[in-house]
Amino acid sequence: MGFKCGIVGLPNVGKSTLFNALTATAAAEAANYPFCTIEPNVGRVGVPDQRLDDLARIASSAKIISTQLEFVDIAGLVRGANRGEGLGNQFLGHIREVDAIVHVVRCFENSDITHVEGEIDPLRDIEIIETELMLSDLESLEKRLPALEKKVRIKDPQALIHYPLMERALELLRQGKPARFLQCSEEEKGELQNLQLITTKPVLYACNVSEADAAVGNALTDRVKQYAEKEGARMAIISAAIEAEVSSLDAEEDKKEFLESLGLSETGLARVIREGYALLNLITFFTIGPKEARAWTVHKGAKAPQGAGEIHSDFERGFIRAETISTADYIALGGEQGAKTAGKLRLEGKEYVVQDGDIFHFLFNV
Known about the structure:
By secondary structure, the protein is an alpha/beta fold. Helix content is 44%, strand content 20%.
């Protein structure tokens, strides 16, 4: 299961520095969290998860394979992007292909780095990008509705579902509100995603701060946090300068000491990756053995057969049951045998809802 997060923002906010640090950090940690460059501006990075390392150590697994997210560095958007300013149409097209948006916002003062809008104002910057995304969706819907209206006249089933949904989304956008605020039934939510509107995508604001503010943020990040909470979005504080420095260090001990000297327990990148994972409403389950310890991704609410299908479609099609141990029990009892002896191994059927941290052994028959 692949998930893409598009990194967006105005020029000179630290967006590409963040992506480059992500690339360097992931490459340095390739043994645990592999990163591969798919295109010059696309990379895949493992989601840091201490549980996976602990499980692998207990099982003496020869290989560790983390679950992954894909990050796409989308060139800086500017005012007028929806009209093609700064190659805007091309970059907006890239955003339509991602599952979530990581919006890098400048929350630091530095006279040596020019801001395209002059003074530093993160909420204004957010509004500029959000407006461009809404205008792009507005234009897309206005172009698509006439053709869809013809299909409604001949009672096309798909058109009968999508047309009223698009009309409601269009009305919301004309009011200056993103399409993700559209009130929908559960069934309509799935159909809304099929419309490929940019403003239906969940958003994570990555506040780029100076080194001095990396631990607790500043007045600017406080404003972004309040805005994110109001919008139902997520927010993380990161210092691109620190991330670049960390990525240049080879030894893990050196990285740890450097972060501790700044009052940090982990990199901002780790927080961005983790928040991006949560933003997509994803959870992790594990398969553990002597050959490999591996993390897998499913949407929250997925049932056991769907989890099995992430490993192989045959597992889902021929699903019988799942032998299940929680990560907490596996670690506390020293592994699979200890969990079995203590009666902590469960047999779960087709209706079982996967819980974050489940360890599975799937039984199937095709």
